[in-house]
Amino acid sequence: MSTDNLEVSNTGQEKGESVFDSRSLEDIYEEIREAYLADERPWVIGYSGGKDSTTALQLIWYAIKELPDDQQTKPIHVISSDTLVETPKIVNHITSTLENINEYSEKEDLPFEAHKVTPKVDDSFWVNLIGRGYPAPNQNFRWCTERLKINPADHFIENKVSEHGEVIVVLGVRKAESATREQVMDLHSIDGSILSRHNKFANAFVYTPIEDWIVDDVWSYLLQVECPWGKENRDLAALYQEADDECPMVIDTKTPSCGNSRFGCWTCTVVSEDKAMQNMIDEGDEWMEPLLEFRDFLKATQDPEEKPKYRQVKGRQHGYVKTKTNGDNGIIPRAHKFEFCKDLLRKLLKTQKKVNEQIPDEEEMDLIRDEELREIRRIWREERADWEDSVPKVYREVMGEDIGWVQDDYGAFGETEAKLLKEIADKHEVPPELVQRLLDTELQHHGMKRRASIYNEIDKVMREDWRPMEEIVADIEGEENVEKWQYTPESQT
Predict the structure, then answer these.
(1) Among 212, 231, 250, residue at a domain's last position
(2) Nearest to 113 by CA among 155, 83, 156
C-alpha cells in the first residue's frame, strides 16, 4: 500500500492525536533527509529491538535510501546494547536483525553499519552478582542498568565523538510514553531546532524522529510498511503478543493484537514478576521455565525476612557493620555471603544445563561466559581469600568438565594450606580469614620495587570487624536473632 496514506486505528491506549492527522509520511521522510544533509556529523542510532527503535530506524532507512548516491556520504551507525542476560528470544531477534542490516546495507550500498555493544567483563551481571556478591537489583539499588546498558553505548558514542568531534544520536523515544519522558525531552530541547542536547556529552546531540507519535502510529506504520532489511514486522508484533497478552490495537483480521510490553533481561528483579517470560512459557516456550525459576529465586532473596540468611553483616569493601538509623537496633544486610555466592554459581550452571536439555532446535546456550567465570575466580581468590579455588570445583561438579583455567596464576596457597591455617588460627583464637587476607595482601605486593601501598592495605584489613558473625548479631540484635543470619550451604544440605 502507499506509505503516504497510513490507516491508523486509535484505540486510546495513549492519549493524544495521531501524528498522521497533521503530517504525511513523506513530510517525515523529508525532515529526516534535511537533518541528515544539514552537516557532516555522523549519526548513531540506538536500536533495542523493540517497536519504537525499529520504527525510527526504518523511517531513516527509507528516507536516506531516496537520496542520490553522492549525498549518502555520512556514516549511520546502528548500535544495540546486549546486556548478556537478555531474554533469549529477544537476543536472537536482535542478532539476526543486526546481521540483516549489515547485509542489506552492503547490498544496496547504503551508509548503515550495525554494531552490538556489550558490557566489559568486569561490569557484567554475573561478575557483580556472584563475583562481588552484589544483591539482586531493586528500585533503590539498580546497579545493573548503567553497567550493562548505558556504559557500553556511551563508550561507543565517546569513541565517535573523539573521531569526528561531534555526533548526532538518534533515539526512538516518544513523549506519549509517560509524563516523565515528556518532561525530560522538553528539558533538553533546543529552541528553533529539531535536535536536543545530550544529557551527558557536550559534543553529542539527540534527534528523536518519532517523539510526537502515539503507540497506534507506531504499529500502524510497522504493520503497513514493509521492513527494508528483510525482516517481517509481523514477527515483531507476534513477539509482543507472546510477551504480553494485553493487546489493544488491531489493524485487520490478519494482524495479531499487540501489547505495550517492554522486553528486558531475563534476570530482572526490579519488577515484581516477569509477565513477559511467563506469557512466553504459557505460549509454548516451556524450555524457558528454568530461567523463570532462577529469576524468581533471585527475587525471593529480596524479601526483608530472607535477607539476613543470604547477606553478610559487614560490607564488602571496608568490612564495617552498618546499623539502622530508624530507632531499630537491626543490622543493615550487606553483600551476599561467600557460601551463598558459591551456591548461586552452582544454581546458575544447573539452570544452564536444564535449558540446553530442553531448548528445541537451537544451539547450546551459555548463560555465563568462560571469561566471566575466570573473572569471578580472580575476584574470589583475591578478595574472598578463596584458597580452595572454588570456581573450577563448582564448574567441574555441575558440568562434569573443565574449561581452560589458567594454573598457578594466584600464588601458591591452596586447599591444603587453608586447612592447615585454620587449625593453627583456631588454636590461637585468631580469625583464619584475617590471616588469609594478610597473606594474600603480601602476595599481591610481592616483587614490587615500591611497597609503600602495602601498609595502607594492611591497615585497611586490620580495620575490618573480624568478630564472628554470631557475636556481632548477638551484640547488636540479641542472641535470639543469631539463627536468622545463618546460612546453610547447598553442599551441606
Answers:
(1) 231
(2) 156
